């Protein structure tokens, strides 16, 4: 599978992860994540790392649960802006 890493979406991803994105940029990314597998994986990975640093997920959940819940959130957000 050929997935070209798009510079623009990488920057958008970074903004959202850093919490510096506007609401519009955030929604744009959510929509984009539905279609772009490489960004979605990168986003999920960053989220999982951030969340696990923040809230010691080991105690009450596996990173896999976290990935699932984030994936659901992406679908919900993307669905709501379609
Ligand atoms: Zn992308």
UniProtKB/TrEMBL annotation:
Protein name per Swiss-Prot or TrEMBL: Putative zinc-finger domain-containing protein
Family matches, as Pfam families: zf-HC2 (PF13490)
Domain of life per record: Bacteria
UniProt domain Putative zinc-finger: residue ranges: 8-40
Organism: Marivirga tractuosa (strain ATCC 23168 / DSM 4126 / NBRC 15989 / NCIMB 1408 / VKM B-1430 / H-43)
């Amino acid at each position: 599978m050929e997935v070209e890493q798009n510079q623009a979406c990488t920057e958008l991803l970074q903004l959202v992860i850093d919490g510096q994105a506007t609401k519009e940029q955030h929604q744009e990314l959510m929509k984009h994540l539905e279609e772009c597998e490489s960004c979605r994986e990168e986003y999920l990975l960053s989220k999982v790392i951030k969340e696990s640093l923040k809230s010691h997920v080991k105690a009450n959940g596996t990173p896999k649960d976290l990935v699932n819940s984030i994936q659901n959130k992406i679908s919900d957000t993307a669905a709501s802006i379609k």
